[in-house]
Write a structure and sequence with these properties.
By secondary structure, the chain is an alpha/beta fold. The protein contains 15 helices and 13 strands. The protein has two domains: about 260 residues, Rossmann fold; about 90 residues, Oxidized Rhodanese, domain 1, CATH 3.40.250.10.
């Protein structure tokens, strides 16, 4: 496969494995030699969530010899509509433990390495060095840039996917001669302008499809067969059931993979993406808001379609991007509470209003999701 730098090591298969993978090995493109390559391969999944779940299930079934999983989160009820590697009985468990148990049940020949930590600039390089391929299943910009840069610095291929609402993306970054994530997105979007899946939602089936595209690309890269997504950015619209493809190229001026690399070490990615927690944002709980609801000037900073779908009674819609032009409509002597889906965009709104001289501004902790879980009818 053009651009692949995955090693070609092979490991002998047992009789049980030959039977298990019989439908694989009869494929001329795989064969026994290809299956032995899969057994010798080491793949790290960054995230055991929506994308990591289907990827891990099928990579394990396909016979990848070693799967690493890095995730510091626990299984939550809101995960289960899309994170299919976990079940109801796993609620509250570390995701890496739950995922590892499922993988071992699917295929006991797979060695699972659990990394129950947050991926960071301090541990990414050492962690990536032990693997052949990195599968990026993250859901935030700081970690995406971190994964990309660590792949470039360690010479690992980055099998990328992302999801939002009804839309998905997939490609292969950081392969020889191909682009990296920074080539396509040199700068992160301004904080708060792109809602997370927790705020904007995601069709539960969508990460299954995108995660399986990532798993397919991973297997092809290991085998060295087929045409990969290197230099091709795949876009999927589940609502319209359409695939589109955009050609992408390596940027010779890229600071991490370009001709004259200027980034030689990992950086502070929270700072790079403008997501430091300062300045401090005062918060109010849903219980306290419910008690003082009538005296609060409640601003919903989501978009019109989100507001139309569900709203808190008495809230006033002012989307975050329109806030600077609506200051004349916001009373300066009021107790103001901003909210969005789960608290991210509204925190940015609170920072902005405070900087404009508004003295009593608070953020609704947990947003409308927390409100609905406590007060479903109001």
């Amino acid at each position: 496969m053009k651009g692949s730098r995955v090693h070609n090591a092979r490991m002998a298969l047992s009789q049980e494995e030959l039977l298990r993978y019989a439908r694989h090995t009869i494929l001329p493109e795989v064969g026994r030699a290809g299956q032995e390559k899969l057994k010798a391969a080491k793949v790290l999944l960054v995230g055991a969530g929506g994308l990591g779940s289907p990827s891990a299930l099928y990579l394990a079934a396909a016979g990848i010899g070693q799967l690493g999983i890095v995730d510091f989160d626990n299984v939550d009820l809101t995960n289960l509509h899309r994170q299919v590697i976990h079940g109801t009985s796993d609620l509250g468990r570390p995701k890496v433990n739950s995922a590892a148990e499922t993988i071992r049940d699917i295929n006991p020949h797979v060695l699972v390495e659990e990394h129950p930590v947050a991926l960071s600039s301090a541990n990414a390089i050492d962690m990536f060095k032990d693997y052949d391929l990195i599968l990026d299943g993250t859901d935030n910009f700081p970690t995406r840039y971190l994964v990309n840069d660590a792949c470039c610095l360690t010479g690992k291929i980055n099998v990328y996917g992302s999801i939002f609402r009804f839309e998905g993306q997939a490609t292969v970054f950081a392969a020889p001669g191909g682009p990296c994530y920074r080539c396509l997105f040199p700068e992160p979007p301004p904080p708060g302008t792109v809602p997370s899946c927790a705020e904007g939602g995601v069709l539960g089936i969508l990460p299954g499809l995108v995660g399986l595209i990532q798993a397919t690309e991973t297997v092809k890269l290991i085998l060295g067969v087929g045409e990969s997504l290197i230099g091709r950015f795949l876009l999927f619209d589940a609502f319209g059931m359409r695939f589109q493809e955009v050609k992408i190229k390596r940027d010779p001026r890229c600071p991490i993979c370009g001709d004259n690399r200027s980034l030689h070490n990992l950086i502070d990615y929270e700072d790079f993406c403008g997501m430091k927690s300062e300045p401090y944002v005062s918060e109010i709980s849903v219980d306290d808001l419910h008690q003082s609801h009538a005296s609060i000037y409640l601003i919903d900073v989501r978009e019109q379609d989100e507001f139309d779908e569900d709203r808190i009674d008495g809230s006033i819609l002012i989307p975050l991007g329109e806030l600077p032009g609506k200051l004349d409509n916001i009373p300066r002597d009021a107790d103001i509470v901003c909210h969005c889906g789960s608290g991210g965009r509204s925190a940015e709104a609170c920072k902005f209003l405070t900087a404009q001289g508004y003295g009593r501004v608070r953020n609704l902790h947990g947003g409308i999701r927390a409100w609905r879980s406590k007060f479903p009818e109001s």
